[in-house]
Every structure is written in C-alpha cells, then in structure tokens.
Amino acid sequence: MTDTGSIATRRIVDVQWLINARPLSPYQWGIVAMCFLIVLLDGLDTAAMGFIAPALVRDWGVPSASLGPVMSAALAGMIFGALGSGPLADRFGRKAVLCMSVAVFGGFSLWSAFATGIDQLVVLRFLTGIGLGAGMPNATTLLSEYTPEKVKSLLVTTMFCGFNLGMAGGGFLSAAIIPHWGWHSLLLIGGIVPVLLLPVLLFWLPESARFMVVRGQPVERIRKVLQPVARESLAGVEQFTIPGQQARGMGPRGPVLARMFAGGLGPGTLLLWGTNFMGLIIIYLLTSWLPTLMRESGASMTQSAVVGALFQFGGVLSAVGVGWAMDRGNPHKVIGICYLLAGVLAVAVGHSMGSGLALVLLVLFAGMCINGAQSAMPSLAARYYPTHVRATGVSWMLGIGRFGAVLGAWLGAALLGLGWNFEQVLTVLIVPAVLAMTGVLIKGRISHTDAA
C-alpha cells in the first residue's frame, strides 16, 4: 500500500503507510512538542552540575578535582536508566516508561537542591540520572514511530534540539540566578518543571500505535490513537498491521543482547555503540569542565557560564540542519564530517584562550559540530532497528554511550588533577573525534539498512 487514497474502503491498514501518506496533523505536532519538552528538561538537569560546580567549590570550600564523583554520578545513573528502560518500553509501552522517567528525574533533582555534602549529592544525582537515562531513548522511539519516513530524521533531531537548548538554557539561567539565589536555585527549577509537566503527559501523550500492533492490543484501542492522524473515519478498519515480520507476531524473542544482534543487526549495533561512546566523551568533558576550566583560566563566573552555554547552544543551531541533510543524503557521511570538525575545533578552542571573540566563535562552532553529530545518533539508531526491538536498540546505544560520558567527566577531573592546562585538556579530544568519525563511516559501509 503506497498510495495516499481514502481509508474508508480498507479493512486492513498498515500503520506506517497511514503515517507516511498524510501530512503531519496537529496531533502529531503535539507529540513532537511534548517529546521536545521532555528532552529539554532532560538536558537542563543533565548539564546542571557543570554550571553549579564553580559555586559549589566556593560555597563548600572543596577543590575542583573532588567534584569528579558528583559530575559522574548522574551519568552513571543514566547508564542504568537507559539500559533498563528500553526492554521495559518494548514490553510495557513507551508512554508508561517515559512518564516514569520524568517523575524520577524531576523528583530527585528537586531533592538534590537540598543536599548538604558531596556524598549525599552523589547519591541523589545518581538517582536523578536513572530517570534522565530513561527519558531520551523513549522520547526518541515514541516520536520516530509517529513520524513519516521522509521527515523522520529531521523531526527526531529537531526534538533533540530540546536537549541542547536545555543544556544551553541551564548555562544562561545559572548565570542569571546563581549569583543572586545560589546553586540550589538551578536544581529547584530542574525539579519543579518536570513535576508540573507530568500530568500533561499522562493525559495527552499517546502510546505508540506500532507498539500496540506488535503487542496485539485491541483494534479499537489502536483505532482511537490513530484517528487524529488519519483525520477521517477508521470505523471500517478490522486490522492494523506494520511492515515486515512484526506484522505477523512479536518478532524475535530471547535475551536483550540476542534481539539486538539477531537478523544481521550485530555489526551495526556494535558500531553505533562505539560511535556514541566516543562522541559522548567529547561532549561531557566539555559540558562538565569547560566552565571550570574557563574560571581557572581567569574568566569570571558569569563569563564561564555563558561560554559553556554557547557550546550547548551551538547544537540548537545545527541539529535541524543535520537532520535535514540526513533525510536528503548519506546520513553516515553527514555525521562523520561533523565529528571530525568537532575534534579540530576543540583543539582550536584550546589554543584560543584569551582571544575574546575568536574564543566565543570557536566554542559556538565546536558546539554546532559535536552536538549536531550527537543529536543525530538516536535518529540513526531509530531508523536502524525494527519496531519489536527499537526502544531497546536506541536505549542500549545511549546507555553504552553513557560510559563514554562518565569517562569524559572523569577524564576532566583526572587531567586537572595531573596539572594539565586548558590547552592540553582540549587538544586530547581530537582522538575520540577521529574514532567516532571512523565508526560511523564504517557502519554506513557495512550496515546501511533502515528498518521498515
């Protein structure tokens, strides 16, 4: 079924055909908006520690290197959240796991604002990270299953702009509020807003229709969530299907790892993991330590926060363009070029301290490249995995990648502890940039298939 005709005479309707054959409805734009907000808040809470670190050093009288466990705690929690949430979402649904993730990271971020010491903050940030790790992969999966193929990468990377915008917004917000209300204020905002968003998600966010078909849920329930997409009566439809094997059943069963490696998915799975791992080393070393490195190089606290925010804001500027290019060209080459440029620009940033406008522009362009590439990775994974394992595949790619995020945050602390300076720390980032580029280009050559 490839035509765009009426549904009125059809008894069997392919869900993906229905979504592909029609322009985006207000209902689908609402899903985009809700997923965007979730990811924005995810980004705000994820980056919060990097922006409040200078204030913690001042208020608690601790050395910068001692904040390494605090910087890494949420990232470690994100590993568990991502690895655990995907299989749960493929079994119980994307919406349930997504709403739970918002409740967890909102609640524990709020609690973190009242921490009184490093040990307590480490525990609370770890628990916050579990919720954060579950949020992004399931927002990616749910949105990808409600978008037409021709704009899937564009819309998923646009949603991912919310993550970069949340991280950048955290920097601008912290520069405005921390000098007046202290470091607690950023964590309070990062907790209260998700809690307020939760009722909206529970009432208005739909479950994935593709997931409902795979799980064999009643036709009437599937009809109800697809009616606003179709914008014409589905009363005569007796069966909904999706392309390929999953239309006839549940898809391959067995352990999570077996499902992600079955049917020729193995090489692509490993390359997605490796690429995401290397990209997150770069992002989280810079996110966690750029404001502190700037501060220790003589910049004011406000200047340090603003420059850190510009790094994240670069991703907002580039993510839509990267998604657009992916839908119209070779997505692996687009991402690979962005990774390489990110490494080169990170080295240039390290050599430009004290250069004023040049430093600002280089940080912005570096953010555009690395965040643009990284924002495209969930879309690449969502396109690669079939429905029955999509949430698991996306979440495990992000979860394995979080080991790179932990390594990046820890690496910053370790290099500072060894006495490395601003230039030396940033120069080392060319290594993971080249490895990320290599991984995604090899994936494009040996495993380019997109799932139906």
TrEMBL record:
Residues 31-451 form the Major facilitator superfamily (MFS) profile domain. The chain crosses the membrane at residues 29-53, 65-84, 96-116, 122-143, 155-177, 183-205, 260-286, 306-326, 333-350, 356-373, 394-418, 424-442. InterPro entries: MFS, MFS_AAHS, MFS_dom, MFS_trans_sf, Sugar_transporter_CS. Pfam families: MFS_1 (PF07690). One of its GO terms (molecular function) is carboxylic acid transmembrane transporter activity. Keywords: Cell inner membrane, Cell membrane, Membrane, Transmembrane, Transmembrane helix, Transport. It is found in: Cell inner membrane. It is a multi-pass membrane protein. GO terms for cellular component: plasma membrane. NCBIfam families: 2A0115. Belongs to the major facilitator superfamily. Aromatic acid:H(+) symporter (AAHS) (TC 2.A.1.15) family. This is MFS transporter.
